[in-house]
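Following up on my earlier thread - several people asked me to post the actual chain instead of describing it. Fair enough. Here it is, all 210 residues.
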Amino acid sequence: MRRLIRSFAGTHPRLYTFPLECGKYKVTPARAVPVNIQRPGYVGNPNYPHHDLVSGTIRRKDPALLEKMRAAGKVAALAVKRGMEKVQLGATSDDVDEVVHNTIVEAGAYPSPIDYYGFPKSVCISVNEQVVHGVPDLRPFQEGDYVNIDVTCYLDGVHGDSSGMATVGNVHPDVFGLVKILCANWGIDKGDKEGDVRVDQDLQAWDQVL
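Reply from S.P.:
Thanks for posting it. Predicted structure:
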């Protein structure tokens, strides 16, 4: 997983953003995926037996499968990069969804969120106080917003995942500082090469950061 920072921060930080208004903005239908692209088993199957992350077994990956995972991860990382470039004043998370969707399907992959437990869009975008797995909608990005873009795609039988943070306009210094600290704790920043992952990370450090 890759953690990125992209900032449009100015020199005059403002107060925290106003609370989001749940349900105020329209969510457009899921975007079409070409019929020739392979779908995960849960698509169109509400009775799909999802893997139990608590009691299920973890399968050791062989080199061939790891290469497939790297390929899917690169597609996801590119989709995050392009999606972050779209985060700007006046744009919407639905605009980002379109960019991410097109990047994924052009690579011959499937946007994993579509129809995962009924999720309606191609990417999870969480704005401001949304904790995780926000649904893209038509709310325009505003001054001071901080935006998480969480991309997962399905390619050649495996999922690739990547995530990024973008800030808009004059972001409160506490918010921007938290974004920087969290990304630094992962040991991955804007200048690092794609695909870098720290496997020796101390997860207890997250408590201190937060």
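The chain is about 25% helix and 15% strand. That should answer part of your original question.
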